Amino acid sequence: MSAARGRALRRLLAAFAVAAAIYVQPARVLGAAPAGSITLGLALEPPNLDPTATSAEATQDVVYGNVFEGLTRITEDGRVAPALADSWTVGDDGLRYRFHLRAGVHFHDGAPFSAADVRFSLDRARAPGSANPLHDLLGAVREVRVVDERTLDIELERPVAELLTYLGWGNLVILSPASAAQAATAPIGTGPFRFVAWRKGDAIVLARNSAYWGTPARLGRVTFRIVADASSALAALLAGDVDGYSNFPAPESVAALSRDPRFTVAVGSTEGETLLAINNARAPFNDVRVRRALAHAIDRRAIITGAMYGHGQPIGSHFPPHDPAYVDLTGRYPFDPAAARALLREAGYPKGFAVTLRLPPPYYARRSGEIIASELGAIGIRVRIENVEWAQWLEQVFKNRDFDLTVVSHTEPMDYDIYARPGYYFGYHSATYDARLAELSRTRDEAARMRLLGDLQRQLADDCVNVFLFELPKLGVWRRDLHGLWRESPVQGINVSAAWLDAPTASGPGTPAGRTGALVLAGTGIVMLGLAGFALRRHVGARYLAGRGVSLLLTMLAASIVIFVLVSVLPGDPAAYMMGLSARPDAIARLRAEYGLDVPAWRQYVDWIGGLVHGNLGTSYTYRVPVAELVGDRLAVSLPLALVSLALSIVLALPIALAAAARPGGLRDRVLMGIAQVGLALPNFWLGLLLILVFAVQLHVLPAGGFPGWDAGTGPALAALLLPAISLALPQACILARVLRAELGGALAEDYARTARAKGLSTWRTLWRHALPNAAIPALTVLGLQFSFLLAGSIIVETVYGLPGLGRLLFQATTQRDLIVVRSVVLLLVATVVIVNVAVELLYAIVDPRLRGRSRH
Amino acid sequence: MNPASPRASLAIGATLVGGIVLLALTSLAGVFDDALAIDVGRRLLAPGAEHWFGTDALGRDVLALIASGACTSLWVALAAVLVGVVVGVPLGLVGAARGGLPDEIVARTGDLVFAFPSLLLAVLLSAALGPGALTAVVAIGVFNVPVFARLVRGKALSLMTRDFVLAARLSGRGRTAIALEHLLPNVAVLVIVQATIQLSLAIVAEAGLSYVGLGVQPPAASWGRMLNDAQTLVGQAPWLAAFPGLALALTVLGLNLLGDALGARFATHRSGEAP
């Protein structure tokens, strides 16, 4: 019996070894990273990479000015400069523009650039139903006409004084007709960098375009790494996982970083007016006195100090302070709670009222919100804070205008026109404002424009449409030897075209990890098949197996229904989330149809299950790639992490349990079990935090977070998994040690163990040879539970370390309302749990032949 | 199971849990109200005579926040476990007493819930219901239901074959009466011991949910959110990460010790803990 068991265990080990050999493939030799590679941190992942179809700032950050270019470009000091057009003339009436295009320009796919591409791009942007954020503005265009290959005319219905500026924005970059359709996932432009790869949830890689028409980029490769959690941002920077941030999401650390000789800190300005936005259409805020009371109640200084650590300039209207036309209106409503209370009394609210403050995820909103709530409380306004995800914010606040107050930063330049948009979420309407704005658009005289812009600012302040808080700062932090990144941000986008490194160093990972994902899946399959093979060969019982199979299928069917219902009732529209801030209803409706969301629920369910049966997990809404590919990439992180943790857990628990059980009740037993008791109580994410503090921040021996990908080599990849694995394994090891210790104690008291010792076998040998095999079944139960937990339940530890694992994919997909990913991943995880349970049961039968063929409940 | 003496476990566990409860009560009594106010002027003060555990980024006293967070933790965890007990225990009893189809349904539903990794379910529910304390209670509570249902069913099934139950059945008592009069009192102890363990798991779960932003919302304090806030300040203000985590760990330790001690005292057999 013992020999047979030994053989079975050896075979099992062999199966694991095969799997391990697949995971730990030797580091492939990559072409050496080009001289001067950098990795920049990005707080939000772009929903897609087509800047003409979304106003998502993250999309502009990556591709604008790097991959794509427009006819004009905006310089760092906010001027309009030539780009794809090297010169232009404007008719005296302001209605006719003639552009002379640059010669010798090619798209990254080799297609030559000509006037036809410009016409295609502009017509595409202004076509009915286009999702372009500047669509309304392009209504002023009468015609875009190709004169010859190098010359293009734009004719307007009415003058648009800002046209040359708009043409320099990311929304109006030039795409080629051949590749425009795939710009969302594989953008092809004319810029100094070409798109290389997008590892979803992790990084986007650009490489130098060696055939660039202008001054070639000096960096060979730029990786934008998504560090979703502001908390991980500092750790990643200090650990050298990222080389810098164009806009660092944790202002609390900026002071410390500017003292750190390793970093340059460049605090600049953005076009982001941060507002306490008010629903002007809803009582009591339809009364200007109430809005003014809010303005008087809020101490901008306290917010800038408390939420922004002193960064950010106070504003008194919707206009950036660094603009020449800026009028300082911050004194219009000085911080004065007494005046605020008086205004509330006057408006008929002597006792105040209750409101809800909806806060989107960015740190500035959440933090300012808490201070605002406390300040409004001081004048009798009872504020209930509701933190919402972007998807919910877009749906509830932006689209349905169902809100009282919110905090948000409007980062588009020249966006004072939103106050004239009908149906905009502020609920503000003023005929005077609309008239002034129309006049501004007609006016080309600089002095007159300044006067008009001043009037607009004053009117917004007088009407107190919103409480204007501060201009969002641009907190640039990067390695000291990195130069040429922009301090100011006059236009959305992180321009890396002129960046360079003092000394060429290599950093950042190589190519996408799709293949590894597939290998990992194959590895899992091998392990599972191995287990099944064992069971079948040893005749566990065909009927028993069939019974388990049917029950497994039924469980999965029930689970799929539960998951489908749960996921379908999630509030928030995936299409609205994808389209961003300036989405229009018809565009959203078309996207819903494209996603298949416009058919009845039962139909969606049947389609989903039908697809699964055929091995098709569907296509991600967000990333537009097959879900199976996404899952494969993530499994390449989660599975090794779970296995390493499990191994660590066993390696730690076994000696502890044996040492403790050798002399039950002895001092060693008590001390070890006491330690296990304490270890059990350590929450793994706190452990993670402490480990980061010690090993990454203080000692610099291990990375604080992020994952370089298996292609960067087995060493770095395993190093990145080590701290997370320890955080996960330590509490698990304590559980396992306690279970093993208890079982060993029980087994030692049994007759066979007494007999063995009476024969003269030492305590250790008795434990090893006789007690341990008998403790295996409970241990297997625990290990089975732990494996499922480690694979799926490590969401929090993945968050702590910024690992692109399955848990984070799920979490991200949930917040992005990528329902198809959520559904399939949850079902996959549930399937894993169920299958592991069955596998553990089969292992029981192998370990203990008495159980063979017996049904267990 | 626990080699340390149950008496010592009981003493340490009771002291730790009692301390946390006391802290929570102090906070409920309003002792810390001033210290909880946002005051940017006193932000990020290191631990000292004025503020024993220091202050956070908005100038709130960390000790006061921990006390207030203890309230949150305890009530969310208690409510969640209560959901498990109130729904799970009757289900388990019904399953054991009635057998047949009801039993099968209870058992299979339990299997289904167990197939969802606990936190996964919480994340989905939180997204569906919107983040908040109530959501946390429901999300954690749902996972507790089958724990108690299974526990009670198993114990009750073994009781059903005992002489005193057989005697009651022979005397013509109905199944409901038997469940209430004979089964319930006999599983009560087991339920209390398990509830202690579940309480500690629920407290960790609440902190975890709050850490990822799906739990209790501000201005209510929560240990999990304090830890998240502390992460970017870990180099500058390590006390912000140290104390809430310590409070969490000590509470869990206390409840675990208490559970072990109670379990040993009532000499009940507890099956291996779920992670």
Short description:
The complex is a heterodimer of chains A (857) and B (275). Chain A is 47% helix and 13% strand.
Please give a structural write-up:
- Chain A is of the alpha+beta class.
- Helices cover 47% and strands 13% of the residues of chain A.
- Chain B is mainly α and 275 residues long.
- Chain B has a single domain (4-271), classed as MetI-like fold.
- Chain B has 10 helices and no strands.
- The longest helix of chain B has 37 residues, at 62-98.
- Chain B starts with 5 loop residues before the first helix and ends in a 10-residue tail after the last helix.
- Residues 268-275 of chain B have low confidence and may be disordered.
- The interface between A and B is large, with 93 and 63 residues.
Stretches of chain A where pLDDT falls below 50 for ≥5 residues?
1-6, 8-34, 504-515, 853-857
In terms of structural class, how would the helical and strand content of chain B be classed?
mainly alpha
Kindly estimate the percentage of residues of chain B that lie in beta strands according to DSSP. under 5%
Structural class of chain A: alpha+beta
Shape of chain A: globular
CATH superfamily assignment of chain B?
A: MetI-like
Helix amount of chain B: over 70%
Secondary structure elements and pairings:
The complex is a heterodimer of chains A (857) and B (275).
Chain A lengths: L1 H22 L13 E6 L14 H7 L8 E3 L5 E3 L2 E6 L5 E6 L13 H12 L14 E8 L2 E6 L6 H4 L26 E7 L3 E6 L12 E6 L3 H9 L5 E2 L8 H6 L3 E16 L9 H10 L2 H7 L6 E2 L22 H10 L7 E6 L3 H15 L4 E6 L2 H10 L5 E6 L20 H12 L3 H17 L4 E13 L2 E2 L16 E2 L12 H24 L4 H27 L5 H6 L5 H11 L5 H13 L13 H36 L4 H14 L3 H15 L15 H35 L2 H8 L4 H30 L2 H7 L4 H10 L3 H29 L10
Parallel strand pairs in A: 1-10, 1-11, 14-15, 14-16
Antiparallel strand pairs in A: 2-3, 4-5, 5-7, 6-7, 8-9, 9-10, 11-17, 12-16, 12-17, 13-17, 18-19
Chain B lengths: L5 H23 L4 H4 L25 H37 L1 H16 L2 H12 L3 H28 L2 H8 L4 H37 L11 H9 L7 H27 L10
